[in-house]
Amino acid sequence: MKAAVIYHPGLPEALVLQERPIPVPTDGQVLIRVKAFGLNRSELMTRKGLSPNVQFPRILGIECVGEVASDPSGQYAKGQQVAALMGGMGRDFDGSYAEYTVLPKRLLHPFESTLPWETLGAVPEMFQTVYGSLYLALDSQPGETLLVRGGTSSVGMLAVQLASRAGLTVLATTRNARKEQVLRDNGAVHVLIDDGQVKEKVRAIFPQGIDKVLELVGANTLHDSLSCLRPGGTGCMSGMLSESWTIPDFAPMEFIPATVRLTIYDSGQIGSPTGAFQNFVRQVEAGQVKLAVSGVFNLDKIVEAHQFMERNEGAGKLVVLP
Fold first, then answer.
1. Which UniProt keywords are listed (predicted)?
2. Dihedral sign (CA 28, 34, 39, 43)
């Protein structure tokens, strides 16, 4: 099989396309023929050596969609459509940057769909992060105000759209003024140009503050985002687009405004149910949800795909087809 292997942290060119034996599943594992996978900033960080405890060489890739090629237990039929994500993929063990991957059965979400693979490849991690952030972490309700910090990321684009459809008033940020109309077309009522400080811009629209914040940029903007919230409001950090993991000299009493709540969503800890995934796929099939896909690459162009991701040129998900 073809696989993109990384032997040491580095630039996109550190990803090397090679021929590798097709792996063999053991008890509790399933061999998946990868049909598509989305690219994620966390993979970029792993490539750079910023993900703790990852050992090289490694095949990256924290998500995929594909078909069951072999299940020793017989639980899954050959050809069954499945999605998989997180749970150590591409970090603790080899992931989806390949034509085949062996995965623990616990990571699989069986589904049925007539959508093309390049569309399905955009769904797993993007949907799960948005669903988990908006509903499991933020408990979003119709009529609330929500700021999506990092609105033109793949997760941000879907969060803006789903929150708007659910009856929330959505504010979204972008660093690029040329992307303002994209966000408005996606459902954002207010678009803020992010220079690192948006508190005053938010308070100019909602003087008492807003109800919820979905922080996708990272630790370096989190304090400013929390300052946009009304007393009793909730902020959820679900992304690190800035590649910033930590807050130096964190002092909670100074960092978090009084009575404001801070939580996180991590799809590696709490996932969305398989039924929610299938229901979302049906919404996409029906045209009720539009997926923002910035580009589709073949596996032999994985270096170019990582370069594109690192330049932040798109407004949505990047998908790779093996």
1. NADP, Oxidoreductase
2. positive
Residue 84 near residue 103 (C-beta atoms within 8 A) = yes
Nearest partner of 118 among 301, 289, 298, judged by Cα: 298
Residue-level length of the chain: 322
What tokens does 252 get?
Answer: 């909670």
Write down the pTM of the prediction: 0.91
Residues 6+ apart with CB under 8 A from 2: 17, 18, 19, 20, 98, 99, 299, 300, 322
Could you say which DSSP state residue 297 is in? Answer: E
Pairing of strands 81-85, 63-70: antiparallel
Per-residue pLDDT for the chain (322 aa), expressed as one digit of tens each? 999 999 999 999 999 999 999 999 999 999 999 999 999 999 999 999 998 889 999 999 999 999 999 999 999 999 999 999 999 999 999 999 999 999 999 999 999 999 999 999 999 999 999 999 999 999 999 999 999 999 999 999 999 999 999 999 999 999 999 999 999 999 999 999 999 999 999 999 999 999 999 999 999 999 999 999 999 999 999 998 888 778 999 999 999 999 999 999 998 888 888 889 999 999 999 999 999 899 999 999 999 999 999 998 777 899 999 9
